[in-house]
Design goal:
Blueprint (H helix, E strand, L loop, with lengths): L4 E3 L5 H7 L4 E4 L2 E8 L11 H18 L7 E9 L1 H11 L1 H4 L6 E7 L7 E8 L7
Parallel strand pairs: 4-5
Antiparallel strand pairs: 1-2, 2-3, 3-6, 4-6
Helix pairs in contact: 2-3
InterPro entries: RutC-like_sf (IPR035959), YjgF/YER057c/UK114 (IPR006175), YjgH-like (IPR038743)
Organism: Phytopseudomonas seleniipraecipitans
Pfam family, one: Ribonuc_L-PSP
Length: 134
């Protein structure tokens, strides 16, 4: 029995279909969100790092909203950063704008060498509100 339900944010379904993955899947009371990057609607990267991080969070928030969630429902975060030693401080100047108040979700930061032209990616797991559980 397949109890997965795919969630698409408004206006971006074609991008996900072209790249052959689901932006998020609801399953057993949880929302598993694919890595979100600072991409414009056409999929191209935002070149400015701080603006790219903001756009990644905006894209993440659009997916969360499509599932009737907010960042407050997030329990697990994984971020991927190209060249974290050089970019971490710049990225973390932006993160508090979206992170919300304590208690914060747990986080794992992973340094990578390539993100398809991006410098930052964020993936999360959120607990679905009772009304959104399918």
């Amino acid at each position: 029995m397949n109890n997965r339900d795919v969630v698409f944010p408004a206006g971006r379904q074609a991008l996900y279909e072209r790249n052959r993955y689901s932006p998020a899947v609801r399953c057993n009371g949880l929302l598993f969100v694919s890595g979100q990057v600072g991409s414009h609607p056409d999929g191209s990267p935002e070149p400015d790092l701080k603006a790219q991080v903001r756009l990644a969070f905006e894209n993440l928030n659009a997916v969360l909203k499509a599932a009737d969630c907010t960042f407050d429902d997030v329990v697990d975060v994984t971020v991927f950063i190209v060249n974290p030693e050089a970019q971490f401080e710049t990225i973390w100047q932006v993160v508090p704008e979206y992170w919300g108040e304590a208690p914060h979700p747990n986080i794992t930061c992973v340094g990578v060498t390539w993100l398809y032209g991006f410098q930052f990616e964020i993936k999360v797991i959120a607990k679905l509100p009772e009304a959104a559980v399918k």
